Amino acid sequence: MATVFKNNKFFPQNFYLNCNNNLEIDIYAGTICSEAVQLSPGSFNGEMPYFKFYLRYCPPYEHEKYSGLRRLQEAARSNTRFKDEYRGYILIDISEWKGHLTEELFADVTMSFLNDMSGYWKYIFASPGCELSEDELSVLQRFFRVKELDHISFSNPDLYKTFFDSIDNNHGIHLSSLTQNLFRRFIPQKVMRTKESVIAIENDFKSFFGPQTNVRAEMMADYLKNPDGFCFGFISEQDMKIILRINKEEITL
């Protein structure tokens, strides 16, 4: 279980993910949304607890052509199951606005609109490959609280760590911290509590990855969605949809 929200309260609700690549963003966004759904199920009515939206940059001299907010409204309507305003998270990629967040179209027009919709929508901002400065982050925080998140801590990690150390030491199967987080995110701790399960996963890893292998995160995603794998049966339908949506072509590890 991750610890994004404290004291079983759905607060803070909005985040900026200080992450390097799209797979890492997917893992963290999925973790945030899974916890949020448990804490406040009434805050969600979409096909998925979040959807991605790429906010294209529009220079000031073309402000009349700015279509970002109209496109966002259309995306929200297409992601709700009912004839109602979309409720849930929107993962907004603002990387094109790097260096331009203080411009009126973003700082005033866009952020004011997002604030008006914040009774329905919650936001996860991301700028893969380009970290925001303190001044740029402050633009996101003008109208509502946005928590910067660059690491998700998982409680009781020893069950996982023991296993990761074991396969590394005994078989040379090394998992990066991102790959380990991906495994933790989708495989519940109860699976790691029996010797039989751990041995089954170990055999899976030896067969799927082979010995002396540095397992990248996208390789782990391929394993988790493999119906012949031992772990496949422990992944919920909702989580499997998240895994299947990971776009490996956008990953730069």
Summary, kept brief:
The chain has helices spanning 22-39, 68-78, 104-116, 134-140, 158-171, 177-186, 195-208, 217-224, 237-244; strands at residues 15-17, 50-54, 88-93, 121-126, 147-149, 173-175, 213-215. The chain is an alpha/beta fold.
Structure description:
Helix 6 runs parallel beside helix 8. The model is unreliable at 249-253 (pLDDT under 50). It contains nine helices and seven strands, in the order βαβαβαβαβαβααβαα. 41% of the residues lie in helices and 11% in strands. The protein has helices at 22-39, 68-78, 104-116, 134-140, 158-171, 177-186, 195-208, 217-224, 237-244; strands at 15-17, 50-54, 88-93, 121-126, 147-149, 173-175, 213-215. It has a five-stranded parallel β-sheet with strand order 2-3-4-1-5, sandwiched between helices. A two-stranded parallel ribbon has the order 6-7.
Q: Give the oligomeric state of the chains in this entry, treating copies of one chain as homo and distinct chains as hetero.
A: single chain
Secondary-structure element series? EHEHEHEHEHEHHEHH
| Main β sheet profile | 5 strands, parallel
**Sheet/helix structural class:** alpha/beta
The count of helical stretches stands at 9
CATH architecture of the largest domain: 3-Layer(aba) Sandwich
Low-pLDDT residue intervals, each spanning 5 or more residues: 249-253
* Cross-sheet strand order for the largest sheet: 2-3-4-1-5
What is the β-strand count? 7
Strand content: 5-15%
Number of domains: 2
CATH class of the largest domain: Alpha Beta
CATH topology of the largest domain: Rossmann fold
